[in-house]
Amino acid sequence: xxxxxxxxxSDVTIAEVVETMSQYNTGFEPLVENDRVVGVVTDRDIxxxxxxxxxxxxxxxxxxxxxxxxxxxxxxxxxxxIQNMSDMEVQRLLVxxxxxxxxxxxxxxxxxxxxxxxxxxxxxxxxxxxxHYR
Length: 134
Fold this sequence. Notes:
alpha/beta, 5 helices
């Protein structure tokens, strides 16, 4: 997983999200309010929900954010993470420290798992997951 992920306040503009994505070479930025993740913005959200629907760079990113946030915990098994990604049809999940605190500690992507995968059976599950993600 990527540790210490960047995240932005929930009141930032679309332009600020794009600037952060460019600076950190990401396609995904969590939005937080009072230390709690309240949404995520992907590069796809910017293109499809944002600019394609007439939003401008100075509009609030929260207007195009995905409010349903998918996550896993840092001690979850990789096979369970892959299954969750496949079930939810996503390519990345926020990683929270534990079920009690739920502090954001990272982001895990299909690519992160692929970069470290040395198990053929796990690789097959990962390929099946990648066919379904968005």
